[in-house]
Structure prediction request, 365 residues.
Amino acid sequence: MSVLPEQSPVTKPHGDTQHNTQSDAKNSGRQFDYLVFIGRFQPFHNGHKAVVDEALQRAKNVIMLIGSANLPRSLRNPFTVAERSKMIKGAYSKADASRIHCVGLDDALYNDTRWLKYVQAGVKSVTGDLQADIGLIGHSKDSSSYYLSLFPNWASVSVPNYKNLSATPIRDGYLMGATPTLDRTPESTREVLEAFKKTDDYQQLHEEAWFIDRYKKQWEDTPYPPTFMTADAVVVQSGHILLVERRSLPGKGLWALPGGFVDQKETLFDACIRELREETRLKVPEPVLRGSRHSQYTFDDPYRSARGRTITQAFYFQLKNDPKGLPKVKGGDDAARAFWLPLAELDAKQMFEDHYAIITKMVGL
Prediction:
């Protein structure tokens, strides 16, 4: 997955229960130089604080690896690393806050190895040495135990779940207009949320939250939540990639790959070609496009779209270099504009959903 789920990370890797219990017993009461807490903290709530409270008791320093850094604001990730750091440090005295080190952690969807490198780099930026006395702290919950299995060299400390709190309902309610209650969030978090509520960025997310709410109500009477299928085009020529700017919600104004939903009576590849031509008016004959297909890959992260469970099939097209330049494009359909972007200027902070991760996976950046 290489991106943190909603729940706090756990401290038990997958495997034999007896082994996990023995590992926790071994580390019971042990003191560390550094304890690492990995999470998204969107927002930081009292459940997170309970983990940090324990970490401050058990370690000289606490490293907060704040996930989903360097992304555009979205319904799932509305707050910047700086804002989340303020929530965290503001919940403690000056002395305790000086022992808490907040470090942004980029996602690396579909690339666990890259994510592990990011985690190691984030920890090393504080410790200076990955062989230092380091442990991981969190609480056991659901599939997030997967993350601890990736760090067998670091000891683990398990903390009981605090009142079964989750950031998801807190964040969702806030973006719909509610104010988080005292029993769920520290005062420092509420101060950041109140300040953010006065910004244009909040208003855009608030509008998007209501849009998604209305969108999902179309399906609330179905026997099962629907799964949507889309197709996206990754078109590259001469070191440039073809992108569109989204015209409408969700993600209005963000950069995206040309693509869209698959019709009932078309193949995935045909849907990709149709959406590509509708959204970009790409001046390349269709037979040439079809002959330029290099590879394809399925992207199915469960959290990749706010609209619901959405799986996309991406097709990578490598167009031949042309001394006449890049083919002409023009935005159409759902795209406010279409444009060629140098690969060196790709910016994760400008990209819709997981499209940056799709590009890096397909193109090999």
Notes: The radius of gyration is 22 Å.
